[in-house]
Amino acid sequence: MCNPVRPDDGGGLAFLGPPETAGIKLAIADIEAAGGIPGFDAVELIEGDSGDTSTDTGRQTVKALLPLKPDVLIGAASSSSTLSVLDQVTNAGVLMISPANTLPSLTTVRDHGLFWRTAPSDVLEGAFLGSLVTGEGHRRVAIISRRDTYGESLRANVTRAITSGGGQVVAGIEYDPAAQDFAA
């Protein structure tokens, strides 16, 4: 049984839900075309909603899915949402795989070996972006980032790479991703 926890249809990461679900459906089709998984009758997809940290949707979804005894839970899209349910999922012995979590602390989180991610952490992403900027010869850099866990972590790692590459971050401006006006 495969249980993706997709982003809240109304949340800030809702755009990630359809491609994540499409990827899972493609993987299931490939598995079935190859003869299935030995020892399993079929792969069943049960969609859920991981929401974001502004709601309790992720916890409610995990509470509803765990009694179904899933083998794998795919999601959440948000690192913060994952952190809010990770103990519950891994303590139940369920593998959790995220295609989008980038928070560096997830690399060393106590997870009983049951949390995997396919996206690089912000440490790697930040190092790459910072080296790309300085590699292009840019030395005085301004960074605009989201005022949330993702934006703060990525900005810190990009800044580290820029300064270690000989550049200088001359401005760091955060914005509220829920804001209606970005003029400031």
Q: Give the % helix.
A: 25-40%
Strand fraction equals 15-25%
Helices and strands, in N-to-C order? EHEHEHEEHEHE
Number of strands: 7
Number of helices: 5
Structure classification: alpha/beta
How many strands, which pairing sense, and closed or not: the largest β-sheet? 5 strands, parallel
Overall residue-averaged pLDDT value: 90
Q: Roughly how many Å apart are the termini? A: 48 Å
In the predicted model, the low-confidence regions spanning at least 5 consecutive residues are 5-9
Q: What strand order characterises the main sheet?
A: 2-1-3-4-5
What's the helix and strand layout?
Elements: E1 2-6, H1 17-33, E2 48-49, H2 57-65, E3 72-74, H3 79-91, E4 95-98, E5 115-117, H4 122-135, E6 140-146, H5 149-164, E7 168-175
Parallel strand pairs: 1-2, 1-3, 3-4, 4-5, 6-7
Helix pairs in contact: 4-5
Could you walk me through the main structural features you see in this protein, from its secondary elements to its overall organization?
Helix 1 (17-33) links the parallel strand 1 (2-6) and strand 2 (48-49). This protein is α/β, with parallel strands linked by helices and 184 residues long. The protein has helices spanning 17-33, 57-65, 79-91, 122-135, 149-164; strands spanning 2-6, 48-49, 72-74, 95-98, 115-117, 140-146, 168-175. Helix 4 crosses helix 5. It is elongated and about 60 Å long. The chain has a 5-stranded parallel β-sheet, sandwiched between helices. Helices cover 38% and strands 17% of the residues. The longest helix is centred in the first third of the chain and has 17 residues, at 17-33. It is built from 5 helices and 7 strands, in the order βαβαβαββαβαβ.
